[in-house]
Amino acid sequence: MTTIEDTAPAPVSDESYQGPLLEVRDLHVEFHTRDGVARAVNGVNYSVSAGETLAVLGESGSGKSVTAQAVMGILDMPPAKIPRGEILFRGQDMLRMSAEERRKIRGRRIAMIFQDALSSLNPVLSVGYQLGEMFRIHLGLSKKEAKARAIELMDRVKIPGAAARVNDYPHQFSGGMRQRIMIAMALALEPDLIIADEPTTALDVTVQAQVMDLLADLQREYNMGLILITHDLGVVADVADKIAVMYAGRIVETAPVHELYKRPAHPYTRGLLDSIPRLDQKGQELYAIKGLPPNLLRTPAGCAFNPRCPKAEDICRTDVPPLHPVTEPDGAELPGRGSACHFWKETIRG
Ligand code: ADP
Ligand code: MG
């Protein structure tokens, strides 16, 4: 389907713009269901700059995908509603743009990669055709030129024998290779930002690392911003610059990646870290955070994590903790660090 908007050039970039590529501010998303209102995203703030990788981490149901879908503009509204918030792309709020302006950004300057390549690719079209389609529709290239570019892209994402495989169908590729094809699709128009939602979750552990490394290499090469959504702290350690941990629709901790591993400042993050399998603990039973994330129709009062928290006290059952700036004991600033725990000081000291 080609529309005039699709073929129009991307907006002229304002070269003087210096801020982050994407900034989500106080974003709220709710779902109006028969059983009530589910507040899936509750005042989320995050930002990502060119050349930077933000990992968004949290158990299933914490609002990671809904936030990303709001950014991409692919939420079904209704049932979803965005009662508050801003989604700034290069300083301009996409929630308040015309549909036409938005279309020029989404898909072209922001691309998304999903967990399940098999359901994102069309099973009856060759991968070369689907990759080439990006170039034919958006750049107006001929069939032949588009195919050449498709092969180039398949090479780029290290699919062996790209020229020989360009006419193969999605099911003829392994899961890892299919995910590389999804990465190629996302890269095709050289976006400024890629949002990858659990891009390796469906893959075997060894393949996960290869695909993650590829994504990280390409991100550096193209100086893109990357938002990496995952429930698995283990896979992002080597590739992310900073992490935002989500729980029940809120960001409960933010930190540069190495700081978060070394000194978590929220009991939930600590629990996630303790749940990562470690080679030096073979045979021992793996720690798991007790209980389950809350039903968002009935989020507990106070800190949503309190029923599962080993450190919860009375205040945790009544007052929602704001995201406190996390500092050194002497008050020295720790840039980029925040914790939504009443007892972040005690937590960071272990
Ligand atoms: P995750 O962190 O696993 O990506 P999601 O962002 O997909 O979580 O979902 C967060 C919550 O939003 C879900 O637990 C659910 O309560 C709610 N939600 C998501 N999509 C819908 C929908 N279409 N209708 C109602 N509620 C939804
Ligand atoms: Mg998700």
List keywords for this structure.
binds magnesium ion, globular, alpha/beta, 350 residues, single chain, disordered N terminus, 8-stranded mixed sheet, 2 domains, Rossmann fold, binds adenosine-5'-diphosphate
Biggest sheet character:
8 strands, mixed
Count of β-strands: 12
- What ligand species are in this complex? adenosine-5'-diphosphate, magnesium ion
Strand content: 15-25%
Strand order of the largest sheet: 6-7-8-3-9-10-12-11
Low-confidence stretches: 1-12
SS element count, helices: 13
Q: What order do the helices and strands follow?
A: HEEEHEEHEHHHHHEHEHEEHHEEH
Shape: globular
- The CATH architecture of the largest domain comes to 3-Layer(aba) Sandwich
Level-1 CATH class name of the largest domain: Alpha Beta
Task: Describe this entry's structure for a reader.
With about 350 residues, the chain is an alpha/beta fold. Helices cover about 30% and strands about 25% of the residues. The chain has 2 domains: about 20-240, P-loop containing nucleotide triphosphate hydrolases (Rossmann fold, 3-Layer(aba) Sandwich); about 270-350, no CATH class. It has 13 helices and 12 strands. An 8-stranded mixed β-sheet has the order 6-7-8-3-9-10-12-11, with helices on both faces. Helix 6 crosses helix 8 (about 175-185). It starts with a helix and ends with a helix.
